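Usage

Read records sequentially. Each one opens with the input sequence:
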Amino acid sequence: MGKKKVLIVEDEKNILDAQAMILEDEFDVIKAMDGDEGYKLAKEHNPDLIVLDLMLPNRGGYDLCFNFRQDDQLKDVKILMVTALSQEVDKKKGKMVGTDNYMTKPFEPDEFLDKVKSLLL
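and closes with the structure output:
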């Protein structure tokens, strides 16, 4: 069986590249820099997991997450929301739109890898 696919939607290139580097040994990584591209690539590649930043150009993470959950093709994709916002209200909102797990920046690479693996295994 092939590697599982992870789509990372993150507008800060250095964070995007760092996340991809952490994951690419074990997963097929697809990268998007904004919400519209993230949605398009999700439809195209049907990833097993989407690592989703909250603050994105064009479409925000909450909006995207909600749209993934309304989409028959993507509704079962695991979603790990990553954000600099660590308020309880943000976590609640994330849960409301259907995120599977939540992580705040900055984070340790190992912690990130573990979270991704825990959602996919």
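Summary fields computed downstream for this record:
- The two ends are 14 Å apart (CA to CA).
- Strands lie at 5-9, 28-32, 49-53, 78-83, 101-104.
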